[in-house]
Amino acid sequence: MRFAFSLIVAAGALLTAAPSHAQTFDPRYPVCMHVYSGANGGGGEWYDCSFTSLPQCRATATGRSAICDLNPYYPVNAAPQRLRQRRTG
Question: Residue 64: which residues within 8 A CB-CB, separation 6 or more?
């Protein structure tokens, strides 16, 4: 009886576990477009973080069920990378 109960509890835990998601936001770009596919169209919703400005994102989102937002993982206050100079000699 205990074995059957523990088997049912284990099966329930496996079936209710949420799937893990990959990283949603690309930290290399400051603007992301959140695209909604809707229930009838299928496909779910996703983020496209490949925009360098809000106007660029909004132009792409025109006519779609999408919204543009600032990327929360874009390093705003990070120091710019220095270019290395080659020594000749």
Answer: 35
For residues 31 and 59, what is the distance between their CA atoms, to the nearest angstrom? 13
Q: What is the pTM of this model?
A: 0.57
Measured between alpha carbons, how far is 11 from 20 in angstroms, rounded to an integer? 18
- Are residues 51 and 34 in contact, defined by beta-carbon separation less than 8 angstroms? no
Q: Are the beta carbons of 51 and 66 closer than 8 angstroms?
A: no
Per-residue confidence (pLDDT) for residue 77, from 0 to 100: 76
For 31, other C-beta atoms within 10 Å of its C-beta total 20
User: Is the torsion defined by CA of 63, 67, 73, 79 positive or negative?
Assistant: positive
Q: Which residue has the tokens 């930290």?
A: 27
Question: Are the C-beta atoms of residues 61 and 33 closer than 8 Å to each other?
Answer: yes
Three-state DSSP class for 59?
A: helix
Considering only CA atoms, which of 88, 42, 45, 41 is closest in space to residue 69? 45
